[in-house]
Amino acid sequence: MILQEPVTPVRRRQNVQRIEKRKQPVTIGIGFLCADGLIIGADSEVSADTDKRQESKIFTMNENGSSPGPTVVFAGSGWLDYVKMAVEKIKKQAIFATTGYEIEEVVEQTVLEVYRKHIRFYSGDDKPFFNLLTGIKDGDRLQLLLTSSTSIRQVYEPVCIGVGETLANYLIRRLTPQRETTEKAAHLAVQILEQVKANVPGCGGMFSEVVMLPKHGPVSRISPSNMLDIEDRGRGFMRLIKPLLLSFSDANTAEDEFEGELAVFTEECRKARQESQRRIRRSN
To answer: Residue-wise over 157-183: b if at least 16 C-beta within 10 A, else e?
Structure first.
């Protein structure tokens, strides 16, 4: 009899797929009532897992006023898939809504439904979440709604959502865009979003989005080319104003020195504005 050495069974390596932990989605969204309308804006960078891309976080309903119901603009923060799900459900369920109050009721019921039927049963460690800013134009009546988790409330003060909300709230308190017309407030909104994108990790994108809902008149947006130009002007202004700010804040600065800095600042602003206007004409 020939004795054979025992054969050690070969354990096959299972092809286990490594599941990457999903990044917490981050964003900045802002909304405020102003002198003659309502502004909603957001950045355009989406970061999740290993993916980073440009995508709109603003959605509209009845934007052209083709139906008799209210015009609605949404901005979302949190997990974008759930933001999109909620907005699509709202648009379907509110298709026959005729007042802003009905829209508010649909938003509340939909947010509860998404959390109860979908987020509740999510199997991962970190539960999805989302918040919505909802601007409603019902005739000449404007409403701004904020959802936070499953709560909803109507807001009258400027409001921000997302990871950049602390800086955005600070800038809004300083710039008070709510006191301006929609057109001027929209330009301030661009500058607020630009500062948040530049200083808060996770907020970014090639351009921001700003939508204007005036009490009287159609919904309008700042075009991407104008958006980039406004952002560039803002950055240029901050560079130009530094020497003047230092001169202004120092009580020991001689009057002629201050007047000289003021004259330089005025001239440089004029040149920068003229160059910006030339770029706009060339792009058109």
So the answer is: ebbbbbbbbebbbebbeebebbebebe
Dist CA 273 CA 236 (whole Å): 10
Which amino acid is present at 50? T
The first and second tokens of residue 33, run together, are 């009532």
Contact 55, 46 (CB under 8 A): yes
Residue with tokens 């004409």: 281
d(CA 279, CA 231): 14
Q: Which residue type occupies 116?
A: R
The DSSP letter of residue 180 is S
Angstrom CA distances, 55 to 44, 81, 174, 199, stand at: 5, 12, 29, 20
| pLDDT single digits (tens) 19-36 | 344 445 568 999 999 989
Is the pLDDT score of 40 beyond 50? yes
Q: Contact 39/180 with Cβ under 8 angstroms?
A: no
Q: What integer best gives the mean pLDDT of the chain?
A: 87
Q: How far apart are CA 54 and CA 47, in angstroms?
A: 9
Q: Mean pLDDT, to the nearest integer, of 137-163?
A: 94
User: Which CATH number fits the domain 28-222, given the four candidates 3.60.20.10, 3.30.160.620, 1.20.1050.10, 3.40.50.1820?
Assistant: 3.60.20.10
